Amino acid sequence: MTSALGYAIAGALLVAMGLAAMLLHHHLVRRLIAFNIMGGGVFLVLLGLAPGHGEQADPVAQALILTGIVVAVAATGLALALARRLHQAGGDVRLDHPSSREDDDDQK
Amino acid sequence: MRVVAHRLIVAGCTVVGLALVYAVVNVQGPAPDLALAVSGALAESGVSHPVTAVLLNFRAYDTLLEVAVMLVAPLVAAALPTTAPAPAKPTNDPVLQALAAVAVPLALLLAIYLLLIGASRSGGAFHAAAVLAGALVLLQLATGRSLPAWLTPTRQQPLLILGLALFCAVGWLSLLLGGYFLGYPPAWAGVMILVIESGLTLSLALALWRLMP
Description:
The complex is a heterodimer.
Chain A: H1 3-24, H2 28-49, H3 59-90
Helix pairs in contact in A: 1-2, 2-3
Chain B: H1 2-25, H2 34-41, H3 50-58, H4 60-79, H5 94-117, H6 125-143, H7 153-176, H8 189-211
Helix pairs in contact in B: 3-4, 4-7, 4-8, 5-6, 6-8, 7-8
């Protein structure tokens, strides 16, 4: 098994872990972190599957990932601004119904 | 009920993860060797670093739209009504202020270096903009102010749009010069990419800075 394939497998596992965390947590900042972990996994898969020449990785894959990172940063910043606005409006950063908040993240 | 739901989620995501690993390991057929195509056309790209050539020349459309995303995100964030403007809180931390006094000028220098080195090595507008935005954040945390007072959010807008506007202008210029949109003539490609990247550095740094809550 080449190291590149190892990166791709690690990326696939990160996507699954991020997906689980995104579904399990209700706190929006935790979901945002999970979203970023999923994104990191996708980048690892992209780079791991791109054909490389020894030390030199595929420049097209690198450029695509760089583009993806910048867009992910923009999306994260916008999501944080939205979460902060939600916090200002209601004092909370969860999206679930108020009645189901008693048994939430903290008691898992 | 919630415990069952959680177990279902964990089980489902485990299945998804295993399926993804199976798919990644069993990718069929050799991928097209784009690295060879890039190195073959590198001479007429205007830069000598393959990643910069892909970003700013061969796949410039991707980067153009990415810059548009980086313009829209801070504008949408600014459109959110805030109940109270975030008060600038200087920390008065002497360690932080001493660090800022040393690190901010170095960061400015590093940003210029990263911008210029992008043509031949790893670097470029995005790296330079990230360093620049980091310097602004450090300045804000250490002293409570960063951008000059006359640069109000309204007056920042031309600077925010500068990168995308320059990118489009250079794209149309290459169309007028007889090529196609964003298809720079090889003789001018190096200069055009440097112009685009210089504008992008300022605009992206400002966009990143404005996204900081």
